[in-house]
User: Fold these one by one.
Assistant:
Number 1:
Amino acid sequence: MNIIIIIIFFILFLSWSFIKNNHNKTTIFLFIIAISFLTSIRNDSVPDTKNYREYYNALEGIESFIFYTFELGFQCYSYILKIILKGNDKLYFFCITFMNSILIFDALKRIQQLIKSNTNSAINPLLYGLVFLFSYYGLFYNAITIRAGIAMALYIQAFSFLCKDDLATSDKIKIFIICFLAYFFHKSSVIFWMILFLAHFMPRLSKRTYLLIILFSCLIFFSRVNILVLNVFNSFFEKIINILSNSNLDTISLYRETITEEETKLSFKFMFQLFSGFLFLSVRFISMPKMYFYFLNIYYIGLVLGAFLAPITMMYRVLDYFLILTFILYMFWVQSTKLPFRLVFIISSGAILYQLILFYRVIIP
C-alpha cells in the first residue's frame, strides 16, 4: 500500500465528513468497503499476515483446530468463512475488516443517538469517527492483530450499551454476552470486565484534576522514570508465568521475551496520546454528556498506565484497550469545540496524518 495514496484516501474521506449537512450513510458504506478492500490486498510483508494466510489456507475442518493455539471462537469464525468464501484468503481478510467495521459503526450510531442534541450539523460524526479510527488503530487491528481486532470491535459494542444513563436488564445481559464472546476471540479481552466496571462507577472529575493527572503522566514519561519500572515488571512477570504454568493461560509464556522487551526511545505513539489528552480537556465540561466522562476516565487511566509502561513494547496490547477510545473522544471533541471550523479540520488532518505515519513505521520498520 503506497503511503501517498493512503494519505490522499484518508484526507478525502475526512474532508467529506466536514461537508455541511452531509449525513448520507452511503458515504460511510463506501468508506467501509474501501478500507476492507485495502486490508484484503495487503501482502505478506505486513506483520502476521503470512501466518494468518497460511492458517486459513491450511484449515480443513473442526478436527484441525487442535493443531493451532488460536482461540476457539476465532477458529470457528474462520472455518465458517472458509466454507462460505470457498477458501479465498483475500475475501477472508475483507470480510473480517468489513464485519468489524459494521460492529463499530453500529456502536457509534448508538452512542451518537444518545448525544444527538449536541450534534454539530456541519460534521458527519460517524464518518469522522471511522476515518479517525482507521488512521491507526483500525488498520493495526484489522491488518495485523486480527484476533484482537475482532475482540476490540466487540468491546466498542459493549461500551455503547454501557453509555445509557439507565441500564436496563437487557442491556446488562447484552454487555455480558458480548464480553464473554470476545474472550473466545482473544484472551486479553478479560480486561474488558475491569474497564467497563471502572467506566460505569468512576466519578466525573474536575478539569483541574484531569489536568494534574496528565501533567503527572507527562512527568513520568518524559523524565524516563518509567525505565526503572522494567526491573520490577520483569520480576513480577516471571512469577505470573510460574503461576499460570500448566493452566489454560500458560500460552502467555510464549511471549516472555516480547513482553519484557525494552524500548529505550521515547514512544511517538504515546506522545500523540498525551497531546490528545490535553485536547480533550479543551471542551466545556458543563455542556458534555455523562458518557463523555466514561470514555475520558478510561482514557486517562490508559495515560497513567502508559506513562509507566510505555517502554515495554508488548504492553501496548493491553494499553490499547484504554487508548483505542481516542477516536470516540475525537468524535465528541469535533462536535463540541468552539475552535474555528478551518482550525478543527487542520488539527484533525494533522492527527490523522501522524497516526498513518505511526502505522507505516510498524509495517515498514
Number 2:
Amino acid sequence: MRDHLVERVCLANPYLSQTLADARRFNRWPKTAIDYLVRAADTDFSRPQPEDPVSAWLRPIVFRTLRAEQIHTLAQLQTYIASRGKRWYLPIPRLGAGKARAIERWLQGHAATLGPLVVADDTPQTALLELAPDLGRTVVPLEQIGRVVPALDGSQGRNRAPGFCLIAARNDLEVIQAYLYRFRDRAKTARAYQKELERFLLWCVGVRRTALSSVGADDCERYKAFLAQPDPSWIGPKVPRSSARWRPFAGGLQPQSQRYAVLVLHGFFAWLVGVRYLGGNPWLLVHDPVTARRDVPLAVEKALPARLWETLARPDGILDQLCARWPASALAATPAAPLTAKDSDAPGAQYRLARAAMLLLGCTGARREEAARALRCHLRPVPEQVGIPAGLWELALLGKRSQWRTVFLPVRVIDALRAHWADRGHDFDDGTQSLSLVSPVVVPATPTAQAKHLGLEDGQPALTGKGFSPDGLYQLLTATLLRIADDATLPLTDVERSLLRQVSPHALRHTFATHAVANEMPPDVLQRLLGHVSLQTTSLYVRAERARSLKAVAKLFPASE
C-alpha cells in the first residue's frame, strides 16, 4: 500500500520523487513526505483518475510493456490510443489485439472519471473519390482521387496551351500521374514529388477553388503563405495513407522545406510548359522562400558527436553490452529457427541485427536504401597488400542514379554481420549467396511479411534472407536508438540521451563523413565512398576554414595560467 501511494505521489508531484525515493530507501520519512502520503491515502481509489499510474490498474505484464514506450499514466495511455487509432498496439512488443481491446473496454467503462476514449477508425479507404470543393472530405491522398469535379479538373484551364500537346493527359490529375511516372525507378524521389504535388492539387481544388492549370502568380504566392501556416484541418499525426485520419501536413513547414516545395512545383510547371500542356509557368514570378544560410552545414550538425559514436560502436561499447545481455551461444549450437516476438532469444537476436545494421551504416557511410539492398555476393575480403591492414572487406553498393560504388568494411563490422547471420541460420562464409546482409530475424505476423521472410528448407520453417524495405530498416534503427536512450543502466549523459531520441539513422552516414574528415581523408576519396556526384557536396563536411578561425581566435585569447 505504501509503495503504491509513493508511486502515485511521485507522478502527481515530480519534485517529491527523489525525496520519496530516498525515504523509502533509507526508511526515513520527513513530515512533508508523510503529509503527501496521508492526503494520497484520503483520495478515493475506487475509481481510476487520469493521473493514476498504469501500474495501479493494469497487470504487471501489461504496464511494464507500456512503461517501455514511455506511457506512465492513464491519461498518457488514452492520448497514445487516440493519436494512433485502432491499431495503436502494433508498435508495442508483447501486446496483441486481444489485450488492446480489453484495455479499450476498461477505459471506456470508466469514462466518467477518465473522460471518453476516442479511437479513430483506421479501416483502409479503398473507394476512389471525386475531388470537389464541397466534398465533406477534400483532404485525401492522390491515389484515392478517382477524378476531379469537371469544372475544376483542368481540361478547360485558363493556362492550357493551344495546339498539340506532347503527352496524352487530358486533365490535371492525369498530368500529375504522367509526371510522377517519369520517376518510377526512383521511388524516394517519386514519393517526395508526389507529396508536394498532391498538396498543391488539394489546395487548388479545396481551398482556392480553381483548377491547377488555371492558377496564376497571385495564387502561387498565396500557396507559398499557406505552406508556412497550413489550415489546422490539414494537419495530423503520421498514419497510413489509407487511413481516414491521413492529413497532408504534420505541421507548418520549416523555411528549407517551404523552399523545397516551391522548387518542386517550379520544376513541375516548367515541365508542363515544355510538353505544351500549359502556356506559361506562373511560378517564374514567385520568389523562393527566404532561408537563412547556415554557418555550420546541416550535414555536420546532424552527425553524432565523436565521443557518442565511440561509446556506441567500440568493442565492449553500448551495442556490445546490449548484445551480451542475451548471449548467442545457445543459438549457435543448432540451426536457428524463425523467432517470434515472444521467444526468449528474440531480444538478443534483434540487438545483434541492430548492431550489424548500425555499424554497416556508420562505418561505410552507406544510405539506408543502399544497406537494405546490399547482398552477401557483393561482399568479399580485400587481398592482403603492403600498407593495407589485414581484415578489410570491400562491398559493392548500388546507389543513387543506379551507380555502383565500392565501400570498405573493417573486421568489426564483419564480426557483427557474422553474429547476425548465425541468428538467421545462414552460412556467412558462403560468399556466393544472393542473400541480404541484414534481414529480419523476428518476422511480424502479417501476411505480407510472412510471405516475404519465411519459407521452407528441408521441410522445416526457415528465414528466406530477403532484406528490409528502406522504411523497415529505418524503423529498426530508430527504435533501437530510442531504447538505448531510455535505458537508464547505460553510461550516457542526459544530453546524449536527448540527442539519440531526436536523431535519424541518416545521421550515421554524416557521422562516417565527419569522422573521415577529422582523420584527414582526402575529399576526392570521401566523395567516391559517399557516392556524391559533385565534390561540392562532399565539401560540406570539410571545415578547414572553421579550423583556421578557431586557431586564429585561440591566439587572441590564450589559456589562462
